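User: Show me a protein chain along with its predicted structure.
Assistant: Here is one chain, sequence first, then structure tokens.
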Amino acid sequence: MQEELKNVPGIQFVDHVAIAVKQGELDGQVKAYEALGFEQIHREEVRGKDQVREALLKIGEGPNLIQLLEPLTANSPVQKLIDKNGGRGGLAHVAFRVANARQAFDAMRAAGFQLIDEAPRKGSRGTTVFFVHPKSKAESAFGILIEMVEDPASQ
């Protein structure tokens, strides 16, 4: 799988690590990270199939972020993750920044990765995203949900 990922064009760095938090706990979690010196830079409700309230926190001066995800409904994939975790929050996914989501999507599809989205789609903060299944490759599964993120603001 490592060789196949080398062929995915434009992977730049870890964009964010997403953490699921239980309903009603987002504000408290933001304050906890702010106490570590993180700075909240974005907050948004994302509807559609995601159904989450998100807060993005900047880590120091680098490009990496922490994304806190609070489910808005019982049908939210984040709520389903919390339910699977016995009612606890936890790691939801890891997101990688890519230069071009369409090119990365096409390369991963051609390499046989199991992609959750049918095509790159609108994400929060004006990004274009797609998700890669944790069991994307039978012979060497990732073990965690992966998101690929193109941020037009960085171009």
